[in-house]
TrEMBL record:
Protein name: Leucine rich repeat containing 74A
Pfam family, one: LRR_6
Highest taxon in the source lineage: Eukaryota
Family annotation (PROSITE patterns): EF_HAND_2 (PS50222)
InterPro entries: EF_hand_dom, Leu-rich_rpt, LRR-containing, LRR_dom_sf
GO terms assigned for molecular function: calcium ion binding
Annotated SMART domains: LRR_RI
Positions of the EF-hand domain: 341-376
Length: 426
């Protein structure tokens, strides 16, 4: 009997492809990684033939090999015979409807696979029917990735019916599809009575308010789900509020991701309020990281600090005292305040910076003085302070300090000590 390597070489000969050394070496290990190799339908046919009797490989990664429906059928035939492969990745292979049909039949018969990745294969609603049928007959598969496909309302109905009857699936990824309206509602209806699913990925769909209402009802009844991702689902304030109603009675969910939706701080506060009401909640992570919050939200969050392990990710705080902008003070008035507090006259203020007695102060020196003094805390920018001073504010009896669009401020001493009151309030 030929070994897997010899079988592969023979299969390459009859299919007209060049044997790949990476395949030959990988056939003796438990993991065979052939992603991005451009195998195509013929290349994967030769591989499938060599794997029919292989007992070593348990993980087969064929992502991004342009297998098309034909190649998908070859892999489906292989997996109907080989019961040693536990994990297969067929993502981004243009399998389309022909591949989905073959894989659906395979899932009905295979009792070894535990994880299947089928992301990005242009599957549509009719393909959901074939895949769901296979899943309803499967008693082993624990993890399925169908993200980045094109399932819509009918697809949601098929998968909802599957979830209501499937008793083994634990992780289901339907993110980046088009599940909305009746499809979203049907999927949630199936989730209500499901007793095995723990992780559900639904990010980047279109659940909106209708889907949020259905999900809230599912959260009230489901007792196994621990991870729910609903990011980017057009959920507004009302949707967040009804999900909060579901959280009031849910006792199993640990992670809820709701960022990149449409609700604001009111929706976020409703979620926190529900956690406050539900003393039996197991939630450990709440993601509302794109929601701008306020002090009221933070005060409500403080009341949940006794919840061990709870982490709430939120956006920036708008009206926190630490983030509020200081009230605007006209730059020249800010300098007046500084002079009055330190009992200085304007001339003395500038004279302290005129180290060489030239009566010309480098702008860089003026800038440093502003930044190092209390004036910095009063004025919005050093530049504004500089050019406010540049208005040639005349001191008493002809003294002046003027700034130009150059590198210096010119200072002229008045004939007699200036009256700061008259200068500051001309």
């Amino acid at each position: 009997m030929l070994g897997s390597g010899s079988t592969y070489k023979y299969a390459c000969k009859i299919t007209g492809v060049v044997p790949a050394s990476k395949v030959i070496k990988g056939l003796s290990g438990s993991t065979l990684r052939l992603e991005h190799r451009g195998l195509g339908p013929r290349g994967v046919k030769a591989l499938a033939i060599s794997l029919l009797s292989n007992t070593h490989v348990t993980f087969l990664n064929l992502e991004d090999n342009w297998l098309t429906a034909e190649g998908g059928r070859h892999i489906a035939d292989l997996l109907s015979e080989n019961y040693f492969i536990k994990h297969v990745n067929l993502s981004n292979n243009h399998l389309e409807s022909g591949g989905a049909e073959a894989l659906g039949r395979m899932l009905s018969n295979n009792s070894a696979l535990e994880k299947v990745q089928l992301s990005g294969n242009h599957f549509k609603d009719e393909d959901a029917m074939n895949l769901s049928q296979g899943l309803m007959n499967n008693n082993q598969l624990k993890e399925l990735d169908l993200s980045h496909n094109e399932f819509c309302e009918k697809g949601g109905k098929y998968f909802g019916h599957m979830l209501a009857t499937n008793e083994v699936l634990e992780i289901f990824d339907l993110s980046w599809n088009h599940l909305r309206m009746t499809g979203a509602v049907a999927l949630c209806a199936g989730l209500r009575g499901n007793t095995t699913l723990t992780h559900l990925h639904l990010a980047w769909n279109g659940y909106a308010t209708e889907g949020a209402v259905a999900m809230a009802e599912a959260l009230k009844l489901n007792s196994t789900l621990v991870y729910l991702d609903l990011r980017k689902n057009r959920i507004g304030n009302h949707g967040a509020e009804v999900i909060a109603n579901g959280l009031e009675v849910n006792e199993t969910l640990k992670t809820l991701k709701l960022s990149h939706n449409l609700f604001d701080v009111d929706g976020a506060k409703a979620l926190l309020t529900s956690l406050k009401k539900n003393q039996m909640s197991k939630l450990q992570e709440l993601d509302v990281s794109t929601v701008t919050v306020n002090d009221a939200f933070l005060r409500l969050l403080e009341t949940l600090q006794d919840r061990s392990g709870l982490v709430v990710e939120h956006g920036r705080v708008t009206d926190s005292p630490l983030l509020r902008p200081r009230p605007y003070v006209e730059p020249m008035r800010a300098i007046e305040i500084y002079l009055e507090k330190n009992k200085l006259r304007l001339w003395e203020f500038f004279h302290s910076m005129d180290k060489d007695g030239s009566k010309r102060i480098p702008i860089a020196v003026f800038r440093n003085m502003i930044q190092e003094s209390e004036v910095r805390a009063q004025t919005p920018t050093v530049k504004e302070s500089l050019y406010s001073t540049a208005r040639k504010k005349r001191t008493a009896k002809g003294g002046r300090c003027s700034a130009h669009h150059s590198d210096y401020i010119s200072c002229t001493k008045p004939p007699r000590p200036p009256c700061s009151a008259r200068f500051l309030n001309p």
